Known about the structure:
The chain is an alpha+beta fold and 168 residues long. It has helices at 27-34, 51-54, 57-60, 133-144; strands spanning 2-8, 11-19, 41-45, 66-72, 82-87, 92-95, 106-114, 119-127, 150-156.
Amino acid sequence: MILCQIQIKTKIFKVFHQNVRGLLNKSEELISFLSPGFPQALCLTQHHLKDTAIDFIYIYIYMDQYKLGAKFCRESLKNGGVSIFVHDTLQCTNINLDEFCKEQDNEACAVRINLSSLTICIISIYRLPTENVLHTLDSILNFLHNTIEIIIIYGDFNINYLNDNDKK
Length: 168
């Protein structure tokens, strides 16, 4: 789990990331871990949900203060998937990254959040240990670079820095 805090003028903007490895059976644990200082954005990798299920997940796991900002769900394969939930007091827009995603390879989603004085982009990525994320991440950043002031990247990159190979 990773929690990032950014100070924007006098306010703290918190973003949380967790590889949940199945959101439905970990929801109570996630919510109790986050309370009482809930972040403004939740990046979840390996949520294991299909497209139709994730749209209604906040009803089932007591996340009524969040809305689904962005998602990638596997259509044919099991597990995987990434999502970003944004606090319902914030205005956000989904950034479509489907052209950069491939099931069981590089899975990503992004959301644009407009704050009073700046625009933040949050990207959530899941990469299988056998794939190279750098090409995909480079393509995503080139796609976004002219439209966003701050880019926050969270994810499960599955990079073992103890092994000497070209994946790191």
